[in-house]
Amino acid sequence: MIIDFPNMPATVVEHFKGGEKEYVVKTFLDEQNRIMHGTLHPGASIGMHMHERNSETYYILSGTGHIVMNDGTEEDFTVGQMHYCPMGKGHTLINKGETDLVFIAIVSEHHD
Amino acid sequence: MIIDFPNMPATVVEHFKGGEKEYVVKTFLDEQNRIMHGTLHPGASIGMHMHERNSETYYILSGTGHIVMNDGTEEDFTVGQMHYCPMGKGHTLINKGETDLVFIAIVSEHHD
Predict the structure, then answer these.
(1) Is A70 within 8 Å of chain B by CB?
(2) CA of A101, closest CA in chain B: separation in Å?
(3) What is the ipTM score, two decimals?
(4) Pairing of strands A45-50, A54-62
(5) Which residue of A14, A47, B46, B100 is most buried, as measured by CB atoms within 10 A?
(6) What is the pLDDT of residue A37?
(7) Distance between CA B71 and CA B2 in Å, rounded?
(8) How confident is the model over A38-60, as a mean pLDDT?
(9) Average pLDDT rounded to a whole number, residues B23-50
(10) Reported pTM
(11) B-chain residues near A89 (CB < 8 A)
């Protein structure tokens, strides 16, 4: 099946996971995966959250993302790179740049 | 962690899953996910394969992809769209276009 993000309506979530400002998101969801097209405007963030039984990948389409892991390590990534949060770890995603951060996010469940 | 595809070496796989020509791929692998940056030149394909206990998403970065599902249904998708093969189904990916098909593919395992 095709997930047609360009023609899918977006939802605006305030303070997603306790983050700053808005998370503008288009979502496909089933029992195994949550597949998202996300936008964080400058200064917006997704708050710290754990991935106890799933994992998450971010692939950046435009802008630069800043990650803080639950162990305190930090990293930046940009267009063409992915950030991977393995099962058992937690992370935030922050737009510290001056342009929108646009990305694909996939949360996959790793249990029967 | 960052998966730095732009600076990762590519592997060339001939007739991947029984497909045509070459699959040029950069791969990150752990127990939960196989995360790939793939290129199929014109006329190349990934052969039919089943996802019995996992699922796969393709996100196109350039070009157009043609999908045939194991039930015979077909669909095309292009830049900005995703194809999703749910757990329990099978699919092929064919580059019927005249330019390279470049995409991100994520295979996620859905069992303990």
Answers:
(1) no
(2) 15
(3) 0.94
(4) unpaired
(5) B46
(6) 98
(7) 37
(8) 98
(9) 98
(10) 0.96
(11) none
